[in-house]
Structures are given as C-alpha cells and as structure tokens.
Specification:
This protein is of the alpha/beta class and about 280 residues long. Helix content is about 35%, strand content about 20%. The protein has a single domain (about 20-140, about 205-280), classed as Spore Coat Polysaccharide Biosynthesis Protein SpsA, Chain A (Alpha-Beta Complex). The strands form two sheets. Strands 1, 4, 5, 6, 7, 8, 9, 10 and 11 form a nine-stranded mixed β-sheet that branches. The protein has a two-stranded antiparallel ribbon with strand order 2-3.
Length: about 280
C-alpha cells in the first residue's frame, strides 16, 4: 500500500498578486487556427483570457506569433504582445514576455493555455497561491486523483508522483507508482482493474512560475528524460528545480486538441446557455 503526499485544499491559501500569460499560436497541426475558433460567439483564446481575469490576475497578456490573434485580443479589450514565431514551447514564449516587460524575479506568472476555454478561475488563482507559499519552489502545478484503469494505463494521461512535502518527484506517461504486487502477476488483466491499490495522480497542465525561473529556462538544455517521455516539465526536474503540486479532488474539464474536443466544449457552453434560458422562463 502506498500513501502519497497531498497538498493544500483549493480554498486554504490567500490569493497573491500574479500575472496571467496566455501563449496562443495560430498554427496547430491537429486543429488549425484553434485559438480563434468560435465558442459561444467568442474566439477560444478570449474565453481563456476572461477566465484568467476572473481569477484575479493583476494583468492578463495574450502572447502570440500571429497578428490576427493580436487584433482579436485588442478587439475584446485584452493586452497582447507579438512574440517570435520560432519558440518550441509555450514556456519559451513566456520567457520572452518576461524579458519584454522586465518583471522582477519574484513575480508570479501563470501560464494559462490558450486551448483551455473551461479552465476554472479558482484553480488558476489557487496554483498561483500555492507557488507563493512554496518559497523553495520555482514552479507550481496541479494534479487530481484518478481511479479508472483506462486512464492510469493511457499514455496520453500524464501521471505524477510526489514526495512527503508535495513536491513532484517525477512525471510520466506510464502508470506510476507501479504497484508491483497488484500489477505484475497478470498484465493482461490490468485494464479490468477495479481500483488502484494506491493513490494515482493525474497531472493538470496548468503552471505558475517565478519570473526568475522563466529567465533561466531558455538556457536549460533539454533533458534525456524530457525527450523520452515528451514532457517538458521533466527538464526543470532534471536541472534540480522543485515543482510544488497542488492537489484538487475536482476533475477539470479537458481542453481542446482535436475537432471532437471542440464539439464537446461547444455542447458544454450550449447546455449552460440553455439552462440559463430555462431559469428565466
């Protein structure tokens, strides 16, 4: 039996000052132009910006490589900056924004992905607060417990394991921790497992950074583990950075990667609109 450390509840920490930066590329191999695709009458990236604003961010900035996204951001009253088109990741784009604005090293910068139109403002705020209270950490992120075998053994679901202080030890697409006595006797029955024998955490791709780390990030060499797992956060662990993990027991709604995700999110907004209409009538 294993017992992994859990961190503070969402409501336990006071919200600190923080800045939200939304990296948004126009190009997307699986869903071209997705940042500007309409959901409930507004571009997707605008929904994300509105949620970051609702989270209490002192400033919300859309960081993009496309003039079209700049224009849409301004149309809806959001600040946007044009960044280099050569960035390999959203973190690299955030690093450029930090340099453009010259923020102090202690500034907390939340990376709210431009394809997460249902990102909860409370979670954004709580991850920022978690970093503010974890002085030894350069990064904070979030995770939630999962029990479905289909998710635990799905390589598209990123898992994490923590130390006793709630800091990430590792992130993997593999099922971690590996419960030897349960999983090993008969691998063919793993998908039929009713419940894991110990807590398994699914990583939520929301990050808060200290600006000092974002300044360092472009100079950090890509790590072998990062390349093997295709998980950028392993670069930080490889280079000795600490990542604080906030545990929430509320499962976030997934973002938009493919056309089926877009249809799901549009249906979600339509259902909300229908519910509001019924309340009025």
């Amino acid at each position: 039996m294993c017992d992994l450390a859990a961190s503070s509840a969402l409501n336990a920490l006071a919200p600190p000052p923080f800045i939200a930066v939304i990296p948004a590329r126009l190009a997307s191999s699986r869903l071209p132009g997705k940042a500007l695709l309409e959901i409930d009458g507004q571009p997707m990236v605008v929904h994300v910006a509105q949620r970051a604003r609702a989270a209490g961010a002192q400033q919300v900035i859309i960081a993009t490589d496309a003039q079209a996204i700049m224009e849409v951001a301004h149309q809806y009253g959001f600040l946007a900056v044009l960044t280099r088109p050569t960035h390999l990741s959203g973190t690299d784009r955030l690093a450029e924004v930090v340099e453009q604005f010259g923020w102090s090293d202690d500034t907390i910068v939340v990376n709210a992905q431009g394809d997460e139109p249902l990102l909860e403002p409370k979670l954004i705020q709580s991850v920022a607060a978690h970093l503010a209270h974890q002085k030894a950490c350069a990064i904070a992120t979030a995770a939630h417990p999962i029990t479905a075998a289909a998710e635990i053994f799905d390589p598209n679901v990123v898992k994490t394991v923590l130390d006793k202080n709630g800091h990430a030890l590792y992130f993997s697409r593999a099922p971690i921790p590996w419960a030897r006595d349960t999983y090993q006797p008969d691998w063919s029955n793993l998908p039929a497992m009713s419940a894991p024998p110990c807590t398994v955490y699914r990583h939520i791709g929301l990050y808060a950074y200290r600006a000092a780390f974002l300044r360092r990030f472009p100079d950090l060499a890509a790590a072998p583990l990062e390349k093997a797992e295709a998980l950028e956060q392993l670069r930080a662990l490889w280079h000795g950075e600490r990542i604080a993990v906030l545990i929430t027991h509320h499962t976030p709604v997934a973002g938009v990667d493919v056309p089926a995700d877009l249809a799901r999110v549009r249906q979600h907004f339509a259902a909300i609109a229908q519910g509001k209409h019924q309340e009025k009538t």
